[in-house]
């Protein structure tokens, strides 16, 4: 039962990331940034599907986010978060990815006896690490390809 709760927790984590990146995509005007976010959305969508399939294999109901995604994002970010600037958007992305990586490391250790599950967990964590590296790199440097929005 513990594993099922963890799978549901990760499903919600990945769903939150997916919805966050999708909501930010609409405000991006720079072609490069749009391409980056589209790629992140693709990988987060794969992660959501990974957990949906695992939960269905265990005949579990797919969790939903009560009160809507926006209120959860609001609680998570706090009232004062300003993600309108690229710098703040990258800080937020890095913070979310850091938390996801931390959670993946713990789950990978918890599932040491499940090599069938671990491969997918490793793949998902590596995607999160790539996202984190991108956010950190773009936080540090102002590039001509990246505009403020």
Automatic annotation (TrEMBL):
InterPro entries: Ferritin-like, Ferritin-like_SF
Entries under Gene3D superfamilies matching the protein: 1.20.1260.10
Sequence intervals crossing the membrane: none
Protein name as it appears in the record: Ferritin-like domain-containing protein
């Amino acid at each position: 039962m513990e594993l099922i709760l963890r799978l549901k927790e990760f499903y919600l984590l990945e769903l939150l990331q997916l919805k966050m990146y999708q909501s930010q995509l609409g405000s991006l005007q720079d072609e490069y940034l749009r391409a980056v976010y589209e790629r992140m959305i693709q990988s987060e969508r794969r992660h959501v599907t990974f957990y949906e399939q695992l939960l269905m294999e265990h005949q579990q109901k797919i969790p939903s986010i009560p009160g809507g995604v926006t209120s959860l994002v609001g609680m998570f970010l706090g009232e004062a978060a300003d993600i309108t600037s690229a710098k703040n958007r990258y800080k937020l992305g890095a913070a979310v990815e850091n938390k996801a990586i931390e959670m993946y490391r713990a789950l990978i250790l918890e599932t040491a006896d499940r090599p069938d599950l671990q491969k997918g967990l490793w793949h998902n964590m590596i995607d999160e690490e790539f996202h984190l590296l991108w956010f950190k790199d773009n936080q540090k440097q102002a590039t001509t390809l990246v505009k403020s929005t």
